Amino acid sequence: MLKIAVIGAGRIGHVHAKTIAGHPAAELTLVADPFGDAADKLATLYGARSCKDAEEVFSDPQVDAVIVGSPTPLHIPHLLAAAAAGKAVLCEKPIALDMKDVEAARAELDAVKVPVMFGFNRRFDPSFAAVHAAVAAGRIGRLEQLTIISRDPAAPPVEYIAVSGGIFRDMTIHDFDTARFFLGEITEVHAVGQNLDPAIEKAGDFDAAVVTLRAATGAVATIINNRHCASGYDQRLEASGRDGALFAENIRPTTVRLSNAEVTDAQEPYLDFFLERYADAYRLELSAFIEAVEAGTTPPTSIDDAIQALRLAEAATQSARSGKPVRLG
After folding, report:
1. Which are the contacts of 89, defined by CB distance < 8 A and separation ≥ 6?
2. Tens digits of per-residue pLDDT, 183-204?
3. What count of other Cβ atoms lies within 10 Å of the Cβ of residue 240?
4. pTM
């Protein structure tokens, strides 16, 4: 039984706490959050202890592993402190808001010996993982084009967007990792940002974007993002190769379809948010983390994966603001 602490009792902290509590090989031991009674409320839900200071997590001998769900500027400090205390780490994305922060800590990150995994849960989504396995098995021949569609049902508060690092670091970062998962090394990024919501534009961000990635293999990925979608949480993926194509479609609560005098083959809306849509992905992500910790093996999403995703996010930001493609050396 892996005893896990969660740092951060916000939305993502609740997701991880619930996932840990429902996992047969994990135990939620401690929740840390400095704000109000957030940690105590979340810990009480699952019979865990709480504290306000993350340092208590690192010094607690009953904690085997730490999930870092704190604000992004604290990801590297909390990751390194947990690793220095000998605790395995599952850290949320992105690794940082700026590559300068990564470079400043690069030597320390390279020296980490404990298992460290990053929360790119899309890799563990059963549908996306099945497409990846089929591509790897040669079912569609050489992969030529990858299309990733990710649209949120509604934008988060403008106050959050203003400190999020922008759409490419906050939202597209998952899609960048998915593209690398399928295509490997990315050599060029071309992004077009859209300002559809005046409030988000005033906050200095885009609320929609289309990104094209060119891989070293010659394959191309197209990522389509939007912070709002009238039909719900739109999450699709298409992989096209010389010998065929694979499609991962949206998930609905049931497979029921209605046909009558007004509609034909009408279905329920897509699952409305990431908490529901990626519940299985979070569970399988945690399982992969626990297995790596217990076996002493390298987790499937590494510090380098997180760094490369952030590099793509920064290149996309540069491209969207300049209107020009960015080559990656």
Report:
1. 65, 66, 67, 68, 79, 82, 83, 114, 115, 116, 117
2. 999 999 999 999 999 999 999 9
3. 17
4. 0.95
